[in-house]
TrEMBL record:
Residues 53-143 form the DUF427 domain. Gene3D superfamilies: Domain of unknown function (DUF427). It comes from Nostoc cycadae WK-1. This is DUF427 domain-containing protein. InterPro entries: DUF427 (IPR007361), DUF427_sf (IPR038694). Pfam families: NTP_transf_9. It comes from the Bacteria.
Amino acid sequence: MIGDRIYAKVEAIAYLFLPTCMVFPQRIEPAPGQESVWDYPRPPRLEPTNKHIQIIFNGVTIADTHNAKRVLETSHPPSYYIPPEDIKMEYLISVPQSSFCEWKGRAGYYTIRVDDKEAQNAAWYYPSPTTAFASIKDYVAFYVHLMDACYLDGEKVQPQPGNFYGGWVTSDIVGPFKGGPGTWGW
């Protein structure tokens, strides 16, 4: 399998350049119907999904779609990008926060506010993405850990470890996942 070969090459290179105290992750073999994040490509791949996505914040469903796109990248659970027409945009407030992705370009951020509850920098989007990611222009991705609940085909999503990345962990995805302590060198 291609993913196994890529994983073996990454592991071999990592052992050459990482400190000896660094522990390289042990790939979890996916069961039938599951995907391993170690089979995902780098550079990442963008693909449409018709899975049902719902995002709830302060008791309000702020996003509901079957028309999202997901980004798949080695060692990361998928991030889901939702078209703005399937989001209650009145709850999203544009903020000056920005970040840069080598693959997608410069991201802008939204704070989510519903009544008296607010989550700062809780969602991001690409107003001028790179050519490879042009189809997610203005689509919005949400940090699971800052929402009350995110659902993918009815399953409650768990956040990617750590607070930096925005991947969605579900029962059909296996890792280990980048993001938690000790994984930055992967």
